[in-house]
Amino acid sequence: MAALDEEGAKTLARLPTLRHLTLDSNTKWADISGISGLGKSNTIRSLAISFFKFGDAELQTLESIGSLNQVHLNHTSVTADGVRAFRAARPNVHVHVHPPIPGLDTQ
Hints:
Blueprint: H1 6-13, E1 20-24, E2 46-50, H2 56-61, E3 70-74, H3 80-89, E4 94-98
Parallel strand pairs: 1-2, 2-3, 3-4
């Protein structure tokens, strides 16, 4: 996937049986600016994101996915502070970051 726009994310969010979603780019640092469109989903439990332009602001948009219980972030630009803020807002969501961020506890 080279990009995820908001309309595409909203389409995914409307899928009634979508439980696990993996977004893996074949182009390092591809655009995922539309990730906020997933916020209306009430079915996604697990989300894996790899090799996208995905930082703290994008992570914050995932807070609105009420059904979410796992986030796997691989080769993104999230920071320790961003992950801590997300965990504070959504303490029951397991966040795994690879490669590990120095100073961030694994969950």
